Amino acid sequence: RAGAPRLDGVITLDAIALEDLVWVSGDVRVSGRKLPLSESTTAAALEIDAFQQPADEKAARTHAAWTSEILRTFLASRPGLESFALATARDARTRHLAIYVRRPSTQDLVSALGLDGAMPDPQPGVLPAIASWSATATSHVGVFVDTRIRQDVRLRSDGSATVLMEVSFENSAGSGSRSALLGQGGEGIPVGAFAADVTVYVPDDARNLAAETSRPSPIDVQEDLGYRTVTGSVSIRGGESSTFTVTYSLREAVRAEGDERRVVLLLLPQPTFEGIAYALRIQAPDEARIVSASPELDVRGGSATFAELRGGPIDLEISYVE
């Protein structure tokens, strides 16, 4: 548009990253709040307190004013490079902070440092344990929703595999008065309900693909960034839960390296308030012996499991011989 500034780049931050900026700058006083925002209260204030108002527009103005004051205070404190790095290193890894730059050479450096929040390219022998979701209502109920991802991978002696992946949501929100936080109700979505489109990423060569939600919804299969995407919709009242399940098979799920066969699970959690609870299992073929595994995996016999609340990406790898 005419008159719009020419941007050199964009930095995106969410409430978790803003709380770490407050850790650097010190407490921030904002209008409409008796106590200042601190390194332990900022995220909850931005995600919950700011939206406990009846009108969406007023809540949005409050949120914008508090966010602006955090940034002004941070910049006025003129933080040292080391302090800034300490505050933002974790946020960048967990995708609470991302950087986009117009100059290609600079963006290449940003990408190499993992600061662009990009989806990794598909690789042979790498199975994605990746899901994303986008709220379809204007409320902020998502802050009260706990997310769990369960994936079960069963390998066969010919290198093929069957995969089951479940994404479960549990909504602990109440169903009180209408507000920007709990929603305004209407159009089939009650106050306190969480409504979202959920997408699971699977390898492009996945076969026998099937998907369902615990409450029936249309299923859409597309392609994105070299993966196939499977999308369903959930609507969860306060105090209830819902699950999206995807199953598929692969003809070539492992990569041969000499006498060993190797498979990797790629975890890329969507940034959330508390993190994602994972329960993953890789079952090697009958008579196979696991010879090495990532230290985060618990290996027992021919299976390896992972159970952890996770906020950042990780690769989980096993190698086995038959």
What does this structure look like?
This protein is an alpha+beta fold. The chain has helices at 15-25, 42-47, 56-76, 81-93, 104-112, and strands at residues 9-13, 97-101, 126-135, 145-155, 161-171, 194-202, 207-213, 220-224, 227-236, 241-250, 255-257, 260-267, 276-283, 289-293, 298-300, 303-310, 314-321. The strands form 3 sheets. Strands 3, 6, 8, 9, 11, 12, 14 and 17 form an 8-stranded mixed sheet that branches. Strands 7-10-5-4-13-16-15 form a 7-stranded mixed sheet, with no helix packed on it. Strand 15 and strand 16 (303-310) form a beta hairpin. Helix 1 (15-25) packs parallel to helix 3 (56-76). The termini are far apart. The relative contact order is 0.14. The model has no long low-confidence stretch (mean pLDDT 92).
Topology:
Layout: E1 9-13, H1 15-25, H2 42-47, H3 56-76, H4 81-93, E2 97-101, H5 104-112, E3 126-135, E4 145-155, E5 161-171, E6 194-202, E7 207-213, E8 220-224, E9 227-236, E10 241-250, E11 255-257, E12 260-267, E13 276-283, E14 289-293, E15 298-300, E16 303-310, E17 314-321
Parallel strand pairs: 3-12, 4-13
Antiparallel strand pairs: 1-2, 3-6, 4-5, 5-10, 6-9, 7-10, 8-9, 11-12, 12-17, 13-16, 14-17, 15-16
